[in-house]
From TrEMBL:
<keyword id="KW-0963">Cytoplasm</keyword>
<keyword id="KW-0949">S-adenosyl-L-methionine</keyword>
<comment type="similarity">
    <text>Belongs to the methyltransferase superfamily. RNA methyltransferase RsmG family.</text>
</comment>
<keyword id="KW-0808">Transferase</keyword>
<keyword id="KW-0698">rRNA processing</keyword>
<dbReference type="GO" id="GO:0070043">
    <property type="term" value="F:rRNA (guanine-N7-)-methyltransferase activity"/>
</dbReference>
<feature type="binding site">
    <location>
        <position position="88"/>
    </location>
    <ligand>
        <name>S-adenosyl-L-methionine</name>
    </ligand>
</feature>
<comment type="function">
    <text>Specifically methylates the N7 position of a guanine in 16S rRNA.</text>
</comment>
<dbReference type="InterPro" id="IPR003682">
    <property type="entry name" value="rRNA_ssu_MeTfrase_G"/>
</dbReference>
<dbReference type="GO" id="GO:0005829">
    <property type="term" value="C:cytosol"/>
</dbReference>
<protein>
    <recommendedName>
        <fullName>Ribosomal RNA small subunit methyltransferase G</fullName>
        <ecNumber>2.1.1.-</ecNumber>
    </recommendedName>
</protein>
<dbReference type="Pfam" id="PF02527">
    <property type="entry name" value="GidB"/>
</dbReference>
<feature type="binding site">
    <location>
        <begin position="106"/>
        <end position="108"/>
    </location>
    <ligand>
        <name>S-adenosyl-L-methionine</name>
    </ligand>
</feature>
<feature type="binding site">
    <location>
        <begin position="134"/>
        <end position="135"/>
    </location>
    <ligand>
        <name>S-adenosyl-L-methionine</name>
    </ligand>
</feature>
<dbReference type="InterPro" id="IPR029063">
    <property type="entry name" value="SAM-dependent_MTases_sf"/>
</dbReference>
<feature type="binding site">
    <location>
        <position position="83"/>
    </location>
    <ligand>
        <name>S-adenosyl-L-methionine</name>
    </ligand>
</feature>
<keyword id="KW-0489">Methyltransferase</keyword>
Length: 243
């Protein structure tokens, strides 16, 4: 291990304080356990190329958490994280929103296996990791039109992501997409998808992740009406022929 627990926690606390995020000793311990397990199992489960402690703190943990201050925390919510990978942002958000229920979805069985073991180690309740493709699950009862929020980071461009995500949302629900500086051109290219899926961009927010030079943005999408049942199209089609 290239860093000890005290140094890891010092760096993590510094970032959380800069983000103005309320945290407890339990959060710090859980994120340390998360980091250790992620680091140990990274190769086996092919998780991420970012593995140095400082980078994991900034690019995975703080980047996942930076949206907390933009959420309405008054009511408990049901979340879906599409293409969650090693749990970013879904599992990290769950630690800070313990009363919300989280569904983590990924098309890689290995990653889901990792997340199930991690959830067990952290003794988390109200979290479920599922192996599958968004296009398939969005047609299943109990998944379609049943989430208050969908999150997704680094999975696809906006026009594709909308077709994956919007059918999962309840009418009035919102999706949170983590994006880079190219988000404006993605919005332009997604005009037709927004129209066909009866969704609108509620807001775009510049995110400040402490110590991160890369520009980060949050796109908040609102679902306006029930989705046409032809969406999403068959698995693979949204990516091959985006709306
Ligand atoms: C680049 S990784 C990003 C992982 C994580 N969200 C992050 O930010 O670190 C993209 C992930 O999306 C998953 N994925 C891609 N297309 C998908 C789909 N249609 N349905 C479910 N998962 C998908 C991949 O298996 C992969 O784990």
């Amino acid at each position: 291990m290239e860093i000890n627990k005290d140094d890891f926690i010092n760096k993590l606390e510094k970032g959380l304080k800069e983000l103005n995020i309320y945290y407890s000793q339990q959060h710090l311990d859980q994120l340390w356990q998360y980091y250790c397990f992620f680091k140990k199992e990274n190769k086996k489960y092919n998780l991420s190329s970012i593995t140095k402690a400082e980078e994991v703190i900034k690019k995975h943990f703080l980047d996942s958490l930076v949206i907390l201050k933009h959420l309405d925390l008054r009511e408990k919510k049901r979340w879906l994280d599409i293409g969650t990978g090693a749990g970013f942002p879904g599992l990290v958000l769950k630690l800070f929103l313990p009363g919300d229920s989280f569904y983590l979805l990924d098309s890689s069985a290995k990653k889901i296996n990792f997340l199930n073991q991690l959830s067990y180690k952290l003794d988390l309740q109200g979290i479920r990791a599922t192996h599958g493709r968004a296009e398939d699950l969005a047609r299943v009862d109990g998944w379609r039109a049943s989430f208050d929020h969908v999150s997704s980071r680094a999975v696809a461009s906006l026009n594709i992501l909308l077709e994956y995500a919007v059918p999962f949302l309840k009418v009035g629900g919102s999706a949170f997409f983590y994006k880079g500086p190219e988000y404006k051109s993605e919005i332009e290219a997604a005009e037709k998808a927004l129209d066909l899926l009866d969704a609108q961009i509620k807001t775009s927010i510049k995110l400040d992740v402490p110590g991160l030079e890369a520009e980060r943005y949050l796109l908040v999408i609102e679902k306006l009406k029930e989705s046409d049942e032809k969406y999403p199209r068959r698995a693979g089609i949204p990516n091959k022929r985006p709306l």
